[in-house]
Design a protein that fits this description.
The protein is α+β, with helices and mostly antiparallel strands. The protein is built from ten helices and four strands. It is elongated, with a radius of gyration of 38 Å.
C-alpha cells in the first residue's frame, strides 16, 4: 500500500510537469524515397577488382567508380553516424539510484547506530520545454543533410569520371588522326624523294617535306604521352594504379534539348537545391532547440527512509528546479540566430554561383553546338574536297609541294578543331547534367536497430 502511494505521487508529479518521452522514428528523417545502396563497402583493395574489359566502356567505368570510390563510403557512414546521433537524441536521461545513512558515528547519543537513519531512492531528471523533441528534429535535419550530401557526391563523381573518360576518348581519336596525318606526309615525302631523284623538283622541296614529317612525328609523340597520362587518371577513378586497357569504346552523347528557362526550373528539383532547404531547416531546428534550452529542467527524487531508533519507516519525495536568474541561454540563442542568418546568406551565394555556372555551361554548350554543326555541314566537306583536288593537281605537276602541304595541314587542323569542339560540347553537357542533378541516387536510411550490425561490419 505504501509503495502504491509512492508511485502514485511520482505519476501525479510527472503529469503536472507535462513531461512526455517522444517516440523516435527515422521514417520522417528524409522526404527522399530511399532505395537500395548502389555499392557495397567490402574493404577490398583496388587490386582485387576485376580487370576492365578492353575496349573500355563508359557504363563499366561509371559502375566500377561508384562501387569503389572511397568518398562515397565516407558519405555513406556519415549518414549512419547521423542516424545514431538522432537515435541518441531521442533518449531521456537515465534515473539515478542513491542511498544515504545519517546520524551515526558521532558523539553522545549519536555515537552508535541506535539513532541512525537510512534511506534509499531514485532521482530522475526531466527535460522540459520539449528539448528532446527539438533535439530529435535537429538530428533528423542532419540526417537529411547527410543524405543529400551523399547524393551530390555521387553526381560529382559521375561528372568527374565522364569528363576523364571523354578526355581519353578525344585524345585517342586525335592520336588516330595524327597517325593518319603522318602516314599522308610520309607518302608525300616518298613522292618528293622520287621526284628529286629524277630531277622533277628541287632539293628544297625535299627539305620542306622532311621538316613537315619531323614536326608531325613530334606532335604524335606528345599526344601519346598525354593519352598515357589521361589513362592513368581515368584508372584512378576506380582505384586502379595502372590502366589495364588499351582503348575505349564511346560515342559522344546527344545534346539535351532543355531551354535556358527550363534548366533554371529543373534546378529547383535537384539535390543541391534540396540541400539548401535542408540546411535552412537544420538552422531553424538548432534555433528552436536553443530557445528551449532557456527552460530549466526538473529533477524529481523519491524513496523510502528507515529510522533505527523507532524501527519505523517513511516515504520521502523531493523536487528541484534551477532558478533562471542569470543563465537563460542568452548566448546560445544569439549564436543560433546568427548561424541561421549565416546559412541564409551562404545559400543565397550558393544559389547565385549555381545559376552562374549553369549560365556559363549553357552558353558554352550552345556555342560549341553551333560550331560543330557549322563545321560538319560547311567546313569539313570543303576542306576535304580542297585537299583531294590539290593532291591530284600536285601529282599531275600543276602545283608545288607547299600548296599540297598547306592543304593537307588545313584538312587535318579542321578535323582536330572538330574533335576539340566535340569534347567542349561533351564537357558542357556533363557540366549541365551535374548542375541539374542528373544521376542522383538517394542513400537508404537504416533503422536504429541495424546500427549494431553496422559496427560488426566495421570491425
Amino acid at each position: 500500500m505504501k509503495f502504491s502511494v509512492l508511485w502514485m505521487s511520482l505519476a501525479v508529479t510527472l503529469f503536472m510537469a507535462e513531461y512526455t518521452i517522444p517516440s523516435y522514428s527515422l521514417a520522417t528523417s528524409s522526404s527522399a524515397d530511399h532505395g537500395q545502396p548502389l555499392y557495397t563497402l567490402t574493404g577490398d583493395t583496388p587490386a582485387k577488382f576485376e580487370k576492365p574489359a578492353d575496349p573500355l566502356t563508359l557504363d563499366w567505368v561509371l559502375k566500377t567508380a561508384i562501387n569503389s570510390h572511397p568518398s562515397l563510403g565516407a558519405t555513406w557512414y556519415e549518414i549512419i553516424a547521423r542516424q545514431g546521433k538522432a537515435q541518441q537524441a531521442g533518449l531521456p536521461a537515465n534515473p539515478a539510484l542513491f542511498g544515504e545513512i545519517e546520524e551515526f558515528g558521532g558523539s553522545g547519543d549519536n555515537s552508535e547506530a541506535d539513532a541512525m537513519s537510512s534511506r534509499i531512492g531514485i532521482s530522475q531528471e526531466f527535460q522540459l520545454g520539449g528539448k528532446i523533441n527539438k533535439r530529435v528534429r535537429e538530428a533528423e535535419a542532419a540526417i537529411r543533410i547527410a543524405d543529400l550530401g551523399h547524393q551530390i557526391e555521387i553526381i560529382e563523381i559521375k561528372a568527374q569520371v565522364e569528363k576523364r573518360f571523354f578526355k581519353v576518348f578525344t585524345l585517342q581519336e586525335l592520336l588516330s588522326l595524327q597517325e593518319e596525318q603522318v602516314e599522308l606526309i610520309r607518302k608525300i615525302h616518298d613522292v618528293v624523294v622520287k621526284r628529286v631523284k629524277v630531277g622533277d623538283t628541287s632539293s628544297l622541296d625535299l627539305a620542306k617535306s622532311q621538316v613537315e614529317l619531323a614536326m608531325a612525328e613530334v606532335e604524335i609523340e606528345q599526344t601519346r604521352r598525354e593519352l598515357d597520362a589521361a589513362k592513368y587518371v581515368l584508372a584512378s577513378s576506380w582505384g586502379a594504379q595502372f590502366p589495364h586497357f588499351t582503348k575505349i569504346s564511346a560515342q559522344y552523347k546527344p545534346v539535351p534539348n532543355f531551354t535556358e528557362q527550363e534548366l533554371k526550373e529543373v534546378i529547383k528539383q535537384t539535390p543541391a537545391w534540396y540541400l539548401m532547404e535542408a540546411q535552412l531547416a537544420g538552422a531553424d531546428a538548432n534555433l528552436n532547440l536553443a530557445m528551449a534550452e532557456k527552460t530549466p529542467d526538473l529533477e524529481l527524487e523519491g524513496g523510502i527512509q528507515h529510522f533505527n531508533e523507532t524501527k519505523d519507516h517513511a516515504f520521502f519525495l523531493g523536487i528541484s528546479i534551477p532558478l533562471p536568474l542569470f543563465d537563460r541561454n542568452q548566448g546560445g540563442i544569439a549564436e543560433a540566430k546568427a548561424l541561421s542568418r549565416k546559412v541564409h546568406y551562404e545559400n543565397e551565394a550558393e544559389l547565385l554561383d549555381l545559376y552562374t555556372e549553369l549560365q556559363e555551361a549553357w552558353q558554352t554548350l550552345v556555342s560549341s553546338r553551333k560550331a560543330v554543326q557549322s563545321l560538319e555541314s560547311r567546313v569539313l566537306p570543303v576542306a576535304q574536297n580542297a585537299y583531294e583536288s590539290i593532291n591530284k593537281a600536285y601529282n599531275a605537276g600543276e602545283l608545288d609541294i607547299l600548296s599540297l602541304l598547306d592543304a593537307q595541314r588545313t584538312w587535318v587542323e579542321t578535323r582536330r578543331t572538330h574533335l576539340n569542339l566535340l569534347q567542349e560540347q561533351e564537357n558542357s553537357r556533363i557540366e549541365i547534367e551535374r548542375l541539374i542533378g542528373k544521376g542522383a541516387t538517394s542513400a537508404p536510411v537504416l533503422s536504429p536497430q541495424n546500427n549494431d550490425s553496422t559496427e560488426k561490419d566495421l570491425s
